[in-house]
Predict the structure.
Amino acid sequence: MKARYLYSIIVSSILFISCNNDILPEDRDNNLSANSIRIESVEQNDFEANQTTRSSYIGYATKFENGDKLGLILTNKDGKQLANIPFSYTENGWTNDNAQPYSSGINKIIAYYPYNEELSNEVTSLDQLKETVTIVSDQSSVEDLKRMDLLVYEIENPSANLNIQFKHAFSMIALSAISTLTVGEETFDYNVEMSNVSLSIGEAMYTLCSINGTYVCLIKDKSLLQEDEFRYFYTISDKAAVKTVNQDIITSSGKRYTFPCTVSGSEEISPAIGDFYCVSNSSNNIIIIPGKAASIPTGLTCKGIVFHIMKDFGDFCTLNNLISTGYPGYNEKHGLIVSSMNGELFGMSNDNKDIVTSVFSATSIDDYNNTNVSNGYKLTKVLKEAAEDESSGLSFTALDNHTELLTNTTIWYAPSFNELKYMIRGIQSDVVSTNGQEYINKQLNKIGGTEITGNIPSITFNDGFYLMENGTEMGWHGIPGAETYRPICAF
């Protein structure tokens, strides 16, 4: 099944998403006769929020892609199945695969997704159709969740041209831990990362699927959730919890039941390693979301991950010829941010090492080969200025896709080898490891960023640039020909 699922934080009860063009092009389906059944539009109802629980929930919908198939079950006035016909989705809309004609003998149509070509001809009702889908207990895979998420729509007294409004056949349970962060006049809700999440209904234990920090699972409608018979389990910040309901709930088709998971402790107000450095889409203010967040709140764009907190920002500024008063920091703290995506190649081949050597030698910088100082900003500035002078012969393209200047930060620059130690090794930067890289990659995966992989070049130079290889110095010095730089900046 190719259909893609879309998820976003919504505060509403029903979300309608158009899934194909409303009008069929006149030149489409030329092979169909004038009385063939046609699908003019498909819309989909989201899971409706259960009003007895929280009103915040994740929008959950399908966007159809080429090759996806829905089915139409045709029945006559006696309730017998006449046909189970497939329709395939293309960029132009839905195609009647079998050129099935419309006739007055069709009394009712049940539209459903995904199409089941092995459907029994005894299936003539929604209840019978739902019984053909098995709800498995392990729903940790998004693919399994999609396969079980049956969409249905009944059409009484149909015509040859159909407009379908799908709804979810089953019920959904969702577990989320929501925390709130207020910065100035802006407030953002985000899902806190949880682990060991599961639920039980009687003796049946379900493993849930994590989507943007909310854990969800499908269950049959008309399921009974009773006190102590229904329990859900989760861990937040190494603290395990078990909860149940205080009144019976009978689930309804198409409804989503969200149960809160308590977040204890006060909100973090100081930046820390792993935090998300974001920009508000409405105010352009910088908002740092704690690393414990499972996803980025709506209204923010994440620009990178904090990977180092500085003990002495003044020393950093002195080393890089910066004026410290020009950088207020974030809640009086300063650190380094790694971009959510790679930069580009250096811009020259290894045959041009002498040009780089001459550029550095012509300056008063005497620590461009020092692997123990965080001077990537200063060295990058030297190379950028030289590249602007055509007579230097230097080409420097590593940051061409990182020209945006964030509020209260330096420009994006290429990291020194010492700064790569913090990024790749982590807090214990003097110990060879990839602990920092693994943690930052985990955070990048939450926001859909590009993982830090392979050998990472620095801007520290000694007859060639130093590269970081699995937490240690690679041993080869030159101008990297295949490895891209990973831009960073300071705040």
About this structure: The chain has three domains: 4-169, 172-260, 276-490. Residues 4-169 form a domain with the Immunoglobulin-like fold (CATH 2.60.40).
